[in-house]
Structure formats: structure tokens, C-alpha cells
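Below is how a single chain appears once it has passed through the pipeline. First comes the sequence as given, then the structure the pipeline wrote out for it. We keep one example in the README because the format questions we get most often are answered faster by looking than by reading.
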Amino acid sequence: MKRLLPLLKNATKLLSMFVLILFTVSACASRSYIKVNYQLPDKIPVAPAITEIRLSVVDQRNHPDPLTAGAREKLTNFQGNYMLIMAPKGENTPMEGVYGLNTLFETVFQKRLGQMGIRVVDSSARQIPELKVVITLFQLDLKDYKWHFRMNYAASLVKDGNVLVTKTFSGEAERLDVPGVDEAGTTVSEMYADLINQLDIAALLSSLPAAS
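Resulting structure:
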């Protein structure tokens, strides 16, 4: 019996490790969403002259599926949703919400505009400036044990039906796939946050004609 005790202890440890690994892997695979961590820029720009703006997000991707075949083999339960996690300065609890792609962009840009003191309004009045965001690429791939994420979008300032200025942004990120770790979400988050914050909204608004 004494000889069996070490074997039983080792077997118990191995079983515990197996259960933990199985739980971790299954938990990652069972998610219907991808986690997106986003932080607002640290530097708050000078408040522009306008206080209201319209905001629209248009999906013009040639490949509407955000996952390639390789990524979908790993993220089998993904349903096209994204959990947005934000921790505004001065707050300890992240703000969380699960959104579709368009709403994810709308929510983040609304937060950026709000940081500048600009309120997003739901209006058809063409004299109110409009920030129009067009998504042209948003795709996650898994190849050779690495996550690859590519994203492109354009931001235009529109007033009275005329496009005053357009800025385009594109980039890609890569991370090694580590079992049990959400490297897919980290890959998306890093590039997404970087490209969103690359847009200088204050500079974009400077193209507005001076009020007469």
C-alpha cells in the first residue's frame, strides 16, 4: 500500500493538470466573441469649435467573414461579435459590451469624440459635420501556429454632402499561438487600438470652413 501512495499522488497531480488544461482550452474555444481591449489616447486634444457631429460606419469589406478558414478551425464558436473592454482614466472597472463590427467602431469613435467634448447626434441635417468611417478590411488568420491580423479603414469628414478630407489607415499584426492563452484577442486588440488612435480627429476637423 505504501508503494502505491506515490503513484496515486502522481496520478492525482496528472489528472488535475489534465483537467485544468482541458478546461482552459475548452473555455477559449467556446467563446462566441473576440476580446478587444482598447484605451483612449492619453493626450486629450484641444477642444475644437464644434460641439456636435454625425457619425456613420460603413462596412465595405471584400471579405465579410472576419476569420479565414484557418482561424475558424480554432475559433469554432465565433459568431461575429466582439467584447469591448475599456478602462477610462480614473475608473478601475472596465466598461464592457459585446457588439457587432459596425457597432464596435461606432462605440469607440463615439468615446474618442466624447473625450474631445463633441456629442454625436442622430440627425439628417447635412449642415452638421459628419465623421464617416469606412471599414475595408478586418480579418484574422491562423497559419503556421501564428495569428495574423490585418485591418484597413478610411475616415472622411463630410459637410453639406461634400467630402472635405479623407484619411486612410492600414496595418497588420502577428503573434505566436499559445495554447490556453487568448493570443487571438491580443493580436486584434493591439493593431485595432493603434490604427484607431492614429486618426487625428482635431486635424481632420480643422478642414471645416470657418463659420461666417
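Confidence is low (pLDDT under 50) at residues 11-30.

See the next section for the split statistics.
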